[in-house]
Amino acid sequence: MDQRLSLDAGGWCPASLAVASPNFDARPEAGKPSLLVVHAISLPPDQFGGPHVEQLFTNTLDPLGHPYFAPIHHLRVSAHFFIRRDGALLQFVSTEMRAWHAGVSSWKGRERCNDFSIGIELEGCDTQPFEAGQYARLAALIQVLRERYPIEAVVGHSDIAPGRKTDPGPYFEWDRLAGLLEVEAGRLPGDFDKAQENQ
């Protein structure tokens, strides 16, 4: 975890474990991503470890592996990054491409957030706190993404799909992330420009 993160010319992070997902396509416009979306996922729900998230994102999840998997194994979804409980970083899709993570969504009146966002999944759920290593890795990843792209805001999935999604959930400490990013407490989720106005 002490290896500094970076992105290569193709939008891949050399410090991550690359697990290529087929669930992506080109962004529809020439513009660069401007939004970071924080998600939480655990498969089966509230259970950590194992290969199931990677299997879901690579279309190899066994529908017989757990009762929860049968109705979701056919989904074609992905995210750019996945941060495990110990802070290990996996990457499924180049940041230059559109990962299928947000679904029906909008931010500040702009719909289809997949078009202009980068999705970061944390191994977690709505019922348990996240780990210190996850916050550290997430902050480092956000910093390197902000160096490459004109990132205007960092939000949760629940912020772009209210009523439909709850992640990253009530145990995600936005103020803790803000402290690591040197952003004023209470300003995240939201726009970085607004968060830094009074600093």
Automatic annotation (TrEMBL):
Swiss-Prot/TrEMBL keywords: Cell wall biogenesis/degradation, Cytoplasm, Hydrolase, Metal-binding, Zinc
Reaction equation(s) it catalyzes: Hydrolyzes the link between N-acetylmuramoyl residues and L-amino acid residues in certain cell-wall glycopeptides
CDD domains given in the database record: PGRP (cd06583)
Full protein name: 1,6-anhydro-N-acetylmuramyl-L-alanine amidase AmpD
Family, per entry: Belongs to the N-acetylmuramoyl-L-alanine amidase 2 family.
Segments passing through the bilayer: none
NCBIfam families cross-referenced by the UniProt entry: PRK11789.1
GO BP field: cell wall organization; peptidoglycan catabolic process; peptidoglycan turnover
Pfam families tied to this protein: Amidase_2 (PF01510)
GO molecular function ontology, one term from the record: metal ion binding
GO CC field: cytoplasm
